[in-house]
Design brief:
Blueprint lengths: L1 E6 L2 E6 L20 E8 L5 E8 L8 E2 L4 E5 L6 E10 L2 E10 L7 E7 L5 E4 L5 E10 L2 E14 L2 E6 L11 E6 L7 E10 L4 H10 L3 E9 L4 E5 L2 H4 L3 E7 L4 E10 L4 E10 L4
Antiparallel strand pairs: 1-2, 3-4, 3-6, 4-5, 7-8, 9-20, 10-19, 11-12, 11-14, 12-13, 15-16, 15-18, 16-17, 19-20
Protein name: Jacalin-related lectin 45-like
Keywords: Lectin
Family: Belongs to the jacalin lectin family.
């Protein structure tokens, strides 16, 4: 089995296993931005992949490669629309496992708002684009945000809302100060996020060290919704004056937040950004 991928203007061919029978191809119109959205396949009782079918952004399906037998699987990441690469395993002349890497496709009317916060993180994270936000979980320590985790609304089927968890950016551990908020499903959405970042005024050596190195942390975070509700995850108006730094707002007039992205270090949420789309847009 082989794949040809596009890296800038360069086409790169990858081959896995051995081609023992007649070669078949499925060609995408990449010059007009056609891409793979999902893959359906089957694997047999021995663990070998017996068939694959590719679905594209133009609602076009490939032919079925192989013969479907065994157990069905689907490679599709909700919120991450575009398949940008493959991973897996092969043994002798057969592919025994197939995985996929997905990326976010930011297409109008969705807009990506730049991540705001303190120091750059060593890991960039992205929850992708969804229909809305359902649950917010924020952990903090020493007046700084450690982690923010979100659960998103991804449709309505069989009489109930379908939700999906975002990434676990920084692991929440016992002892953290944790706040959790749930929005009203179906009619409540986030219109803006307000935050503040700066140096923490610790005592003694800890304070001297943070000032010397210049570390900046997210020290206030709150989420506002269309129902006039503010979910205060950390900080308050009186405390904001105790920090040296900057405030920020994520949001656009007439838009709702449909996903988050940002940067994290191993134990701190460093920056947070958002995806927004018009409130009346389907």
């Amino acid at each position: 089995m082989g794949f040809t991928t596009l890296n800038g203007d360069q086409l790169i061919t990858h081959s896995h296993g051995k081609i023992l029978q007649e070669r078949k191809e499925f060609v995408l119109d990449y010059e007009n931005d056609e891409y793979i959205k999902s893959i359906e396949g089957f694997y047999d009782k021995f663990g070998y992949i017996s068939s694959l079918t590719f679905k594209t952004s133009r609602d076009r399906d490939s032919e079925v490669f192989g013969k479907p037998k065994g157990k069905k699987f689907v490679l599709m990441a909700k919120g991450f629309d575009k398949l940008v690469g493959f991973r897996g395993r092969s043994y002798d002349n057969c592919v025994t496992a197939l995985g996929a890497n997905f990326a976010v496709v930011v297409a109008p009317p969705v807009k990506k708002l730049e991540a705001k916060g303190g120091n750059p993180g060593c890991e960039e994270w992205d929850d992708g684009i969804h229909e809305g936000v359902y649950k917010i979980m924020v952990s903090s320590e020493h007046s700084a945000v450690k982690s923010a985790k979100f659960e998103y609304v991804n449709g309505y089927a069989d009489g109930q809302y379908q939700t999906v968890n975002g990434n676990d950016h920084v692991k929440i551990i016992p002892g953290d100060d944790i706040k959790e908020f749930k929005l009203s499903l179906g009619d409540e959405y986030i219109t803006s996020v307000e935050g503040h970042y700066g140096q923490i005024h610790n005592d003694g050596i800890a304070r001297e060290l943070t000032e010397l190195i210049g570390f900046k942390y997210i020290t206030m975070l709150k989420f506002k919704t269309n129902k006039g509700i503010t979910y205060q995850a950390l900080g308050n108006e009186e405390e904001d004056s105790e920090y040296v730094g900057e405030s920020f707002v994520l949001g656009m007039e007439g838009h709702k937040i449909v996903g988050f992205h940002g940067m994290s270090s191993y134990d701190t949420l460093n920056r947070i950004g958002a995806y927004v789309k018009p409130i009346d847009s389907p």
